[in-house]
Each structure stands twice: as C-alpha cells, then as structure tokens.
UniProtKB/TrEMBL annotation:
<keyword id="KW-0010">Activator</keyword>
<dbReference type="InterPro" id="IPR000595">
    <property type="entry name" value="cNMP-bd_dom"/>
</dbReference>
<feature type="domain" description="Cyclic nucleotide-binding">
    <location>
        <begin position="23"/>
        <end position="126"/>
    </location>
</feature>
<dbReference type="Pfam" id="PF00027">
    <property type="entry name" value="cNMP_binding"/>
</dbReference>
<dbReference type="InterPro" id="IPR018490">
    <property type="entry name" value="cNMP-bd_dom_sf"/>
</dbReference>
<dbReference type="InterPro" id="IPR014710">
    <property type="entry name" value="RmlC-like_jellyroll"/>
</dbReference>
<protein>
    <recommendedName>
        <fullName>Cyclic nucleotide-binding domain-containing protein</fullName>
    </recommendedName>
</protein>
Length: 201
C-alpha cells in the first residue's frame, strides 16, 4: 500500500499504467481488468504522428515510455509547441475530444515510444460502470486545465529567461532529449534568444 493524493491505494508492482490511473482515483481490481480489455497498445517510431491537425481527436493516450510533442503550426510553417509528454502521462486534445471537431494541433513522437489509447466510447462506457471512472475523468480534466492555465500565466508574467529556468526545474533531464529549436518554440522565443539565455547560465 501507499498513500497518494486521494488516499490509500493498492498498486500492482511494475504496472505504470495502473499507478498512473490511481493517481487520480482508486480503481477496483474488477474495473482495472475491464479497462485492460478495452485499451490498445501501440509502438511508434521517432517522427511519426499520433494525431495530425485537422483530424478529430477521438482517443485519450497514455505514454508508457518515450517522448511526444503537442504543437500548433501557422500557415507560414511557424510551430508553437503547447507541451511535451513524457513517461507515465496521459495526453489528448481535450477540446477536440469533447466536441467531436477537428483538432488544431498535432501530436508527434520525438523518440521511439510505446503508448496506450482508449476511445471516447470507452470513456463513456466506463463512466456508466463505476464511480471511480467519473472521478478519474474529472480529476484528469482538472489536471489538464491547471497545466494549461499555468502555461498561459507563465507566457504573460515571466520573462524568457525566467521561463527557461522554470522549464529546467520542471522538466529535469528533458533538455538533452529535445532539440533546442523545439525548446525555443515551447518557450515562445526564437532559437537565437534561447542561445543567448543559455550562454548566460
């Protein structure tokens, strides 16, 4: 047993997906086994896409290992990276997922990765099965909203140098896995500006 954010939770050893689910809600064994029967696992190579802009996002994803980026692209080809996704994180375009409308962003693997996915239909079935899934869905939505709000505040209130220092603190070890120009796109600065900031460190 261990005590997580929402109380005492039993975790099956070496099962990162169950541990990730139970950060949001206590999942009974019967519900866990049913969930396993409803999800799919996929491997993806570096550079391949989970989702292209213009497609409807109909899945929630879970990164078992690897690295992804979620990004927007302007008509002139300029990229704006919304977030990076690393091991043991859930990710999706939640707006597209909820509204059944085309996504404005793309999701691309930055490394060879393995991930799980489950559909909106599965989510709706889970909500009807057990209250634990309602709790999971609500708390996941809350965490995604908080992450989005923090990023928006940082872009408005923090300087480029402060945003870079915060990136290093919050994403320890990630800098060596990501090209510098993509870190610059995440921080909403130019690669030249990032280079100047790094030279001051």
């Amino acid at each position: 047993m261990w005590r997580g954010q929402w109380g005492e939770i039993k975790v099956v050893p070496n099962d990162s997906l169950l541990a990730a689910l139970q950060r949001y809600a206590v999942i009974p064994e019967e519900e866990w086994l049913y969930f396993l029967s409803q999800i799919s696992w996929k491997s993806i190579q570096k550079g391949q896409y989970v989702l292209h802009s213009g497609q409807s996002c109909e899945q929630i994803y879970y990164c078992e290992h690897g690295l992804f980026r979620m990004f927007y692209e302007n008509e002139d080809g300029t990229e704006h990276i919304k977030s990076f996704v690393t091991e043991e994180q859930f990710f999706t375009d939640y707006r597209s997922f909820l509204t059944n409308t085309p996504s404005f962003l793309s999701i691309q693997a930055l490394e060879g990765s393995r991930y799980a996915l489950f559909s909106k239909q599965t989510v709706e079935q889970l909500y009807e099965r057990h209250i634990c899934w309602e709790r999971f869905g609500r708390r996941l939505a809350e965490s995604l909203f908080i992450r989005k709000s923090k990023k928006e505040r940082e872009l408005v209130e923090l300087s480029a140098e402060e945003r870079y220092r915060l990136f290093l603190q919050q994403h320890s070890g990630l800098e060596s896995r990501i090209p510098q120009y993509q870190i610059a796109a995440f921080l909403a600065i130019s690669p030249v500006s990032l280079s100047r900031i790094r030279n001051k460190q």
